[in-house]
């Protein structure tokens, strides 16, 4: 009988956590009950499956076990007077006949967590916790805030839902558009965490990417007249199309200029580009549509050297006007480096104040290296290394730092289209092509 290792059970947990929590929140209307019951079920799986093997349907087993644990807990906590009524309620069928515009449990939970009485950051953080199964530390990294700050934010959000008696029900159709911004942010951050995992030894978490795309497709069916929904779906599809080319056989990071474009998924590229064209015809630009257009420009280029960096910079100009954030400005600086040279880009980067963000230091390091300022570049690489929790990114940055002592780097006075950027949904890592020293000796 096949058995599962703890690591394999962890992957099941990641893949099924959101579904299980969504089903239990719908059944019991209590976040803490649902989360604790699902955690108990996975604890039981860790104790049992390594010796007995997994059940025929691991997801079904987790949901059934979690539901039983929740029932047991609520029965223990029920007072003597209402115990019979509580038992009758909990023994009722778990499938409810609730109808409405949102029928998928996970998408329904996203919309209910994005209640307007909660601040948008709390909406997004809570839903990432419940649906994505992300840890508090992972969510804190996504928001660029300290972990204790995020923990307090999650506790407050749950407390507000409980104290205000916010109902877990399908929002009315007129209420959907006002919650759309937060819902799109949630789906986007779930995809980002999958595209480049915040921790662990694997660059990509395929389960989160797949779940985000699934939710994006559901949103597109639910709200076909919202161009930002199409924009987000296009962005995710175009980024996901490169997955097979983004890592080596042993899991190492492969940046965009070095990727084998024959490995890109042509069907996903075509679908994403068609969505971008549809967005352009609507002429109602938004941040997700512009990011999708940037990725479409990359997918149009038959090779890295043919990338239209001028168009990409123009699109980033539009994006920065719509969403003037330092992260967007950081991404834009990469395009500026390709068009106007690394010195122009470095002046922009140094003013951003993103010291806690590892990609800020990685981009600074690359720009400094291209300018021949190797000692400063080495310091910036070290700063980036200690600020990333992903081993694949960390190893790539280590190799870049080591290469500084084994290559001659000539200062660059202009943009080099051959230089590259891993153009993910919201993050970039630069990489130049240093010239090897003939003698091969460190300085």
UniProtKB/TrEMBL annotation:
Pfam families: DUF6596, Sigma70_r2, Sigma70_r4_2. Residues 82-101 are annotated as: Disordered. Residues 179-279 form the DUF6596 domain. The keyword Transcription applies. The keyword Transcription regulation applies. Residues 110-160 form the RNA polymerase sigma factor 70 region 4 type domain. Gene3D superfamilies: 1.10.1740.10, Winged helix-like DNA-binding domain superfamily/Winged helix DNA-binding domain (1.10.10.10). SUPFAM superfamilies: Sigma2 domain of RNA polymerase sigma factors, Sigma3 and sigma4 domains of RNA polymerase sigma factors. InterPro entries: DUF6596 (IPR046531), RNA_pol_sigma-70_dom (IPR014284), RNA_pol_sigma70_r2 (IPR007627), RNA_pol_sigma70_r4_t2 (IPR013249), RNA_pol_sigma_r2 (IPR013325), RNA_pol_sigma_r3/r4-like (IPR013324), WH-like_DNA-bd_sf (IPR036388). Residues 13-78 form the RNA polymerase sigma-70 region domain. Keywords: Sigma factor, Transcription, Transcription regulation. It comes from the Bacteria. Belongs to the sigma-70 factor family. ECF subfamily. PANTHER family: BLL6612 PROTEIN, BLL6612 PROTEIN-RELATED. This is RNA polymerase sigma factor.
């Amino acid at each position: 009988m096949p058995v599962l290792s703890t690591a394999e059970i962890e992957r099941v947990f990641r893949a099924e956590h959101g579904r299980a929590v969504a089903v239990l929140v719908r059944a019991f209307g209590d976040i803490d009950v649902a989360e604790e019951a699902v955690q108990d079920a996975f604890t039981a799986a860790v104790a049992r499956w390594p010796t007995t093997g997994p059940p025929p349907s691991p997801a079904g087993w987790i949901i059934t076990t979690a539901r039983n644990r929740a029932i047991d807990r609520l029965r223990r906590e029920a007072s003597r007077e209402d115990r019979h009524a509580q038992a009758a309620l909990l023994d009722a069928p778990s499938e409810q006949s609730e109808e409405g515009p949102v029928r998928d449990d996970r998408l329904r939970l996203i919309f209910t967590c994005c209640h307007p009485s909660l601040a948008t950051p709390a909406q997004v953080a809570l839903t990432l916790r419940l649906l994505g199964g992300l840890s508090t530390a992972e969510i804190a990294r996504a928001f660029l805030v300290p972990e204790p700050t995020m923990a307090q934010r999650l506790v407050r959000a749950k407390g507000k839902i409980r104290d205000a008696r916010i109902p877990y029900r399908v929002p009315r159709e007129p209420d959907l558009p006002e919650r759309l911004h937060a819902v799109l942010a949630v789906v986007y951050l779930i995809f980002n965490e999958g595209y480049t995992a915040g921790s662990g030894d694997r660059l990509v978490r395929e389960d989160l990417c797949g779940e985000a795309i699934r939710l994006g497709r559901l949103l597109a069916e639910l709200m076909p007249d919202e161009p930002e929904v199409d924009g987000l779906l296009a962005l995710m599809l175009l980024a996901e199309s490169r997955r097979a080319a983004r890592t080596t056989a042993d899991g190492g990071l492969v940046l965009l200029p070095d990727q084998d474009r024959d490995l890109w998924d042509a069907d996903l590229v075509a679908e994403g580009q068609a969505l971008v064209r549809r967005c352009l015809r609507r002429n109602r630009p938004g941040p997700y549509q512009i990011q999708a257009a940037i990725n479409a420009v990359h997918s149009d280029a038959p090779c890295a050297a043919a990338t239209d960096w001028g168009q990409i910079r123009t699109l980033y100009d539009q994006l920065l006007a719509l969403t003037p954030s330092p992260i967007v400005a950081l991404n834009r600086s990469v395009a500026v480096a390709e068009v106007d040279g690394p010195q122009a880009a470095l002046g922009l980067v140094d003013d951003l104040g993103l010291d806690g963000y590892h990609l800020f230091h990685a981009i600074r390091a690359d720009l400094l290296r291209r300018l021949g300022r190797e000692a400063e570049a080495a310091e910036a690489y070290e700063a980036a290394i200690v600020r990333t929790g992903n081993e694949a990114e960390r190893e790539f940055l280590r190799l870049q730092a080591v290469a500084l002592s084994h290559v001659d780097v000539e200062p660059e006075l202009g943009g080099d289209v051959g230089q590259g950027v891993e153009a993910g949904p919201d993050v970039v890592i630069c990489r130049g092509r240093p010239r090897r020293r003939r003698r091969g000796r460190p300085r």
